[in-house]
Amino acid sequence: AVKKSFSLPKGYKTFKGYDGKEVRIDNDFDNDGINDLAIVCSDKNNEAKIIVFYLTSKYFVNNTYYWFPWDYSNINFTYKNNVMDITSGDDFFYVTLKLKYYSNLGNMKLIGYGEEESIRNPEGNLVPVSSKSINLNTGEYQIKGGVKKKISIDLITLSNIEKYFAYLNAIGSNDKTK
User: Fold this and answer.
1) What is the pLDDT of residues 164-177, one digit of tens each?
2) pLDDT tens digits along 45-92
């Protein structure tokens, strides 16, 4: 079998975490029997970071891949039960994206979005001050574990995810329960 490889976007290199290792996950996201890749890359100055997704069912056919800017630190990938979790942030702010491949879309769909913000109390312990979880499959969101509220959200996939980050971040910001 020929070992196929992925080409990084022009002007980018693989990003190395604090441990000196690439921040990546290799798994079969699109269920075609070939490992796909999600990897964090940075520009030449190590300033701007992006996450690049290579789905072999697309990439090895027409070199299509997806990427979006992701300038958070401590980026972690996990893949379990066909769901990719991307968690990133620092002690005070975390963002989580949940993505799942749908064959009818030929793409990974954003099915969940979450945020958690914390502060240090006078004793120096981290205390969560706000949290948000959005289930994009049911169209429900929750602020600080409160009442679930309905929201209408467009279909978000790797093709258009970047356009929705500000919108997802703003959901619930006008809620009185904050």
Assistant:
1) 999 999 998 876 54
2) 888 899 999 999 999 999 999 999 998 889 999 999 999 999 999 889
CB-count burial class (<10 Å; 0-12, 13-18, 19+) for 107: buried
Note the residue count of the chain: 178
Two structure tokens written together for 10: 């022009």
Q: What is the pLDDT of residues 144-161, one digit of tens each?
A: 989 999 999 999 999 999
Q: Which two tokens stand for residue 31?
A: 């269920």
**What type of residue is 103?**
S
Secondary structure string (H, E, C) spanning the chain? CCCCCCCCCCCEEECECCCCCECEEEECCCCCCCCEEEEEEEECCCCCEEEEEECHHHHHHHCCCEEEECCCCCCEEEEECCEEEEEEECCCEEEEEEEEEECCCCEEEEEEEEEEEEEECCCCCEEEEEEEEEECCCCEEEECCCCCEECCCCCCECCCHHHHHHHHHHCCCCCCCC
